[in-house]
Amino acid sequence: MAAPLNPQPDRSTDGVTPGGAARSPAQLVAGVIGVVFLIVGIGGFIPGLTTDYDQLSFAGRHSMAMLLGLFMVSILHNIVHLLFGIAGLALARSPRSARAFLVGGGVIYLVLWIYGLVIDHDSAANFVPVNTADNWLHLGLAVAMIALGLLTGARGRVPGEVAPDSR
Description:
Blueprint: H1 25-43, E1 50-51, E2 66-67, E3 71-72, H2 75-91, H3 95-118, H4 132-154
Antiparallel strand pairs: 1-2, 2-3
Helix pairs in contact: 1-2, 1-3, 2-3, 3-4
C-alpha cells in the first residue's frame, strides 16, 4: 500500500511537539521568555542600550555598565542571560520540559533574589553583579515564571487525570 500524501506526524514518540503542531501554553510561554532572555543578553553588549558601556567588565561589582541605565551588567551577566534564553528555547520543545524551565527558572531567580538581598553589593560576593533594581526584577521573574509554569501545567486537566505529556 502506498504511503499517504500528507502523513500526520507521530506525536507519541518522545513528547516533543513536531513542527507545525499546536504548542501548549507552557511551550509558548517558555519560548517567549527564552527569546526575551536572548534579547536582554544581546542588549547588554550594545552601547546605547547599555550605558557606561566602556566600564563593562567580565564580572564583579566593578562593572558599572547598566542595561537601560538601570540594571547592572557584566560580560558574565550577559552570557548567563544568553544561556538562559537558549535553555528556554530548547526546553520549549515539549510541554513537560517547558514547564520544568518555567518553574525551575523561577526557583533559580528566587534564589538569586535572596542572594542579592543578603550580600553586600560592594563586596567580592557581588560577582554577577546585581543592584537593587536587579533584585526587584529577579523577584518579579521568580513569581511570574513559577506561576506561569504551574498555571500552564494545570490548564485543561481533570483532577486525578494523568496528563498525556507527563512521561
